Amino acid sequence: MSDGETNIRALSETTIQRIAAGEVVERPASVVKELVENSLDADASRISVRVDGGGTERIAVTDDGIGMSREDVQIAVEEHTTSKIRDIDDLESGVATLGFRGEALYTIGAVSRTKIRTKPRGGESGTELRLVGGDVEGVGPAGCPEGTTVEVEDLFFNTPARRKYLKTDSTEFAHVNRVVTQYALANPDVAFSLEHDGREVFSTTGRGNLQSTILSVYGREVATAMIAVDGGDAVDASGYVSHPETTRSTREYVATYVNGRYVRSSVVREAILDAYGNQLAPDRYPFAVLFLDVPADSVDVNVHPRKMEVRFGDEARVKTAVRDAVQDALLDNGLVRASAPRG
Ligand code: ADP
Ligand code: MG
Known about the structure:
The chain is of the alpha+beta class. The chain has 11 helices and 17 strands. A hairpin with a 4-residue loop joins strand 9 and strand 10. It binds adenosine-5'-diphosphate (ADP) and magnesium ion.
């Protein structure tokens, strides 16, 4: 190439926006995750999730949370706007909310046709705001109950390369179902409902009991096979694990939470499986809904904000504590032999 020529060019705002959006929103389940987290952060006691076509056609999340004023909702859909932190000091002193980056509504709006209807608690009037591919197409008054509904249609309509990556409706719905299940189990005091193509998949009562939530989400066969775990020496581990004969062929039903947040932790999962000794058939996995309480400074939950990974300061200690707590529960029920290895 001769002097003065270059192949390097600045990307347009639109291109930058759509590339960034693809990193936050991978598929319908990521939209559902962000919207459900917003509803929980908004102090909702009821959250309904309705999706069509696995979420590729339409996703609607309705809550009875604090809602937004007309001014609020207009700001909320802009880039990097949040009510949850003010500056880096807030972040360092620890955030109690699930979100704080201020990017979800903006990015979801950029890659779909989005409609937000919202009314603040105790407010006089509601607002409807419509976005198409990131542009605000209209804001006006709306008759709606207190709380918020975010409706997302035609996800990735303007990013065909992304849209092509979507799997079948049933696969996409399986991801959505997993996300809603994770949050429903972690929040027994919130009434969740999930609907797909107009049919109810599950609903929980929101009456604050993990056992009844497991029944609502997984059904009677699984619920009756669950054993309470309540213990842990170095680490507080409590919840439920299934009888060794009530298993599935994937590990997705081993749900683990650290300080109330759903996390993917191979350390915790392995510890649970270890507790069963040789009682599990090959390639079979139990159901588990296990909550660990650890001091905030002994765990890093922000290793990757979207992948839900965690890192423990002392993995070996966590592993032993979880395995022993689960093993004690199984032993108490005569479901493993006392000779299973302990460390
Ligand atoms: P973040 O959750 O990181 O703050 P979002 O883009 O998800 O960023 O949301 C931006 C802001 O919009 C939130 O900080 C909150 O003030 C408001 N908001 C979003 N969803 C809701 C909701 N369901 N109810 C009330 N306020 C909401
Ligand atoms: Mg958010």
